[in-house]
Amino acid sequence: MSFDLEIEFAVEAVRRAARVTRRVQAETLLHRLEADATKGQGQEQGRVKGHGQDARATNAYRPEADATGWADAPKGVLQKADLSPVTVADFASQAVVARALQEAFGADPLVGEEDASALRKDPGTLELVTRFVAEAIDDDVVGAGPSPRPVRARNAGRPRGAAPTGSARSSEGGVTPESVCEWIDHGNGEACDRFWTLDPIDGTKGYLRREQYAVALALIVGGRVQVAALACPSLYAGGALLGGGAGDESRAGIIVAAVRGRGAFWLPMDVKATPRPLRVSTVGAMCDARFLRSVEAAHTNLDDISWLAAALGVMAASVGLDSQAKYAVLAGGHGDVLLRLLSPKRPDYKEMIWDQAAGSLIVEEAGGRVTDLAGRALDFSQGKTLAANRGVCVTNGHLHEAILDGLAAMKAAGAKEAAR
């Protein structure tokens, strides 16, 4: 199967969703933080205009603080049960993609990260999400890329802002809070022989800091990822594909994508351009390797990564990036090793499929290799988690066996230490 329609759909879907996330970021989060800063609500909040690390949503979570669970939380930020931040952009992004998927491939389930249960209990946030989704639908006829063919064919001549044929809509055909919730809940599908998986904002905390994040979409058929697309709004094509600061207006963001057996490619998010191939680096000496890692300590084991790098003779400091943007950087040849080790706080954690599906195929099709920490291929046939795998090891391929050997040695050393 060629998957021509699927890759065209995936690229355009993540492009549209990423534009929504940018709009929310600019209009909802930054404006609120700047308004708070001008009101003098604390020295930390007063530094948000400096961006970068000072742009963090620094307030501590307190259940009694307000309806969102944050003390003086930025407007548009909710909290899930695991206390990871959920933004208006998460919901709007998922609604935009799910709506388009219902039209393009109506029989395909979507396994997404979000559901609308919390959103239905917060009318103010739901109103914001609805507005951003409606604006995104109005923008469907504008932009750098073509609409996915099935969407274009079935929605020709529809009113601006109207819901697509056959999906949730109001009696007037416009976007409503209920239709938005129904699109979001379309992401509650079950994994089966053929389904899509979506992370509407991978790297939510990076998004809140105005650093790296991604919209990640992948098609899984028979337990294997066949089509993948990542929109990385804070990565740009110049230099080492590493994103500029939040004030760098020259960046346009990129999309990286792949079809199994046909290679990986990238193209700008906002400019018409011919897709260009992605290839991993040719680095084969460990002393020259560049490690990529998560920013959040809860997502990996930073101490063990540092120990492993030192034991293997890696000279360069590891680079911390949020989200599957790390996969894009490695696929582009500007990083060589990415490890998702198990956090000591969550030793039994199993990876969610939407956190790995899109990025793993892109790296593989760029010439790299992706396995778990024991060298096993990632198994996407186990439902919503990689239940048959433990951790993730991603390399340019040339360094993979050496990394696996190092991981085995580190595990053995830890076992000896525990036995003493």
Describe the protein in words.
- The protein is α+β, with helices and mostly antiparallel strands and about 425 residues long.
- The chain has helices at about 5-40, 90-105, 115-120, 125-140, 150-155, 175-185, 205-210, 300-310, 325-330, 355-365, 400-420; strands at about 75-80, 85, 110, 195-200, 215-220, 225-230, 255-260, 265-270, 275, 290-295, 320, 335-340, 370, 390-395.
- Strands 3-4-5-6-7-8-9 form a seven-stranded mixed sheet, sandwiched between helices.
- Helix 2 (about 90-105) crosses helix 4 and helix 8 crosses helix 11 (about 400-420).
- The longest helix has about 35 residues, at about 5-40.
- The termini are far apart.
- The relative contact order is 0.12.
- Mean pLDDT is about 80; it is low at about 40-75, about 140-170 and about 240-250.
The counted number of beta strands is: 14
Helical content band: 25-40%
Helix vs. strand class: alpha+beta
H/E element sequence: HEEHEHHHHEHEEEEEEHEHEHEEH
Mean pLDDT, all residues: 80
Low-confidence stretches are: 41-73, 141-172, 239-250
Task: Quickly describe the structure.
This protein is α+β, with helices and mostly antiparallel strands. It has eleven helices and 14 strands.
